[in-house]
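Q: I have 488 residues here and want to know how they pack in 3D. Can you give me a structure?
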Amino acid sequence: MREYSFWFVVGSQLLYGPEVLETVAARAAEMAKELSRELPYPLVYKVTAKSNQEIAQVVKEANYDDSCAGIITWCHTFSPSKMWINGLAGLQKPYCHLATQYNREIPNEEIDMDFMNLNQAAHGDREHGFIAARLRMPRKVIAGHWQDKTVRERLGDWMKAAIGAAVSRELRVMRFGDNMREVAVTEGDKVEVQTKLGWQVNTWAVGDLVKEMNAVTEAEIDALMETYRENYDIATDNLEAIRYQAREEIAMKRMLDREGCKAFSNTFQDLYGMEQLPGLASQHLMAQGYGYGGEGDWKVAAMTAIMKAMGENGNGVSLFMEDYTYNLVPGAEYSLGAHMLEVCPCCAAGRPRIETHHLGIGMNEKDPARLVFEGKAGDAIVVSLIDMGGRLRLICQDIHCVKPILPMPNLPVARVMWQAEPSLTAGVECWITAGGAHHTVLSYDVTAQQMKDWCAMMDIEFVHITKDTTVESLEHDLFLSDLAWKLK
């Protein structure tokens, strides 16, 4: 992944004189250096901006620097906000306003008018905040002392959302064939999505993949088989099925990398020339950070790649998921999520096993190999991006993953079990009311707040189902949101 950083732009003005401005610049550089030790991405001090020209110039540079994932502003002193208009109006990167001050407390003995003139962030940040509000700019406001743990955590969370925006803007999705026939939710307006989110979504023929598979050598397959053995337990005697998955993975990765794609989709209805639906192949690609969507669902494939990039170390515990069935026993209400073959092993509670089993759906000539495991317990979210016709809506629900309450020895797929907020039945009613899909991204390390920030950056609708959500309140919020988005 690209080496991203964030720019620290500090506001002041020329009226203070060179001595004050030197102090402001030194403090800003110190703060950026100290914060970078705690934040997930470097914070680079760029300039103490004192004029319209300086602000406009640094914004132009940020816009054209692909490694800059966003800017963080702070007004150490008073920075008249009219000088920010041209720069902010042209800003194309995510924007966070850090409302802080250098000193933590007011020094009782030292405070005089010189101190007040130098340390008037309370004055400067409010002036700065006004112009962003006046310009109707989407931005994140974080207030508190810059050395506080909570402030640094919130800055880090916002940075990860901004990384998601940067990845989205240059994301390319490879579709092997079309989507599953007659499925509504996997459809969508690719022109609108590229306009709003930056995704380039295009199709490659399955025959092209088969041609690439035929070019894979036995030596390449041998090397990947060793990687499989290092990471997974082989629980089948059908090594040829595993080798065939390795051949598929090598070919798909070669095509993805050649075309600059970080996400892909396929469908079991289009396996022209292939013996097996890619199972293990897709799972191991996801473990490397690629996004995936089944049944040709390119939207969930892209969101999986984005949320993986937003997670820890640029490849977090986010995975393609599908709601399958419910346990509706009173007091033990759970959702069981899985997919035919393709659940990323990043969420595994133990060491995954490679198994081969018959797949009774699709055009498989032979039994596909796949990873089988139980997902780990922990708080998480599930996310669904849907096309509402004229706008995009991201639905996010809080969930609590648990160790599966049943062993399910005859279920030959990876599986995750969870409790949904506010309850299973109320959560299902809310999800369906909002139009949530059966395909989701399940994430253990990306938060609902980060997804809300990401939606604000991408200018799309965000719906959050929490422990406090009711069907009635959600219906009311959706009605008002529908009116608001129609006016945009």
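Q: Anything worth noting?
A: The chain has 15 helices and 19 strands. The longest helix spans residues 149-169.
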